[in-house]
Amino acid sequence: MKFALLWLALAGCPKSEQKKPVEPSHPSGAEDGRQLLPANEAGVAALLPAPPLPEIPLGLPPAPAGVLEAVTPAQVALGELLFRDPRLSKSSRTQCTTCHDLANRYNGVPTSGSPSANDHRRTPPELENLAWNPRAIAAFTAHFAEQMGQDLASATNAIEDVPGYRPHLERIGGAHDEAVTKALLGFLLTRYDAGSPWDHQERSAATSKDPVANGYRLFIGKARCGTCHTPPLYTDGREHDTGFGTPTATRSLRGVARRAVFFSDGRARTLGDALDNYTQDHPKTELVKIILSPPERADLLAFLEALTGVVPTAMLQPLP
Question: What is the mean pLDDT of the chain?
Answer without folding.
Answer: 81
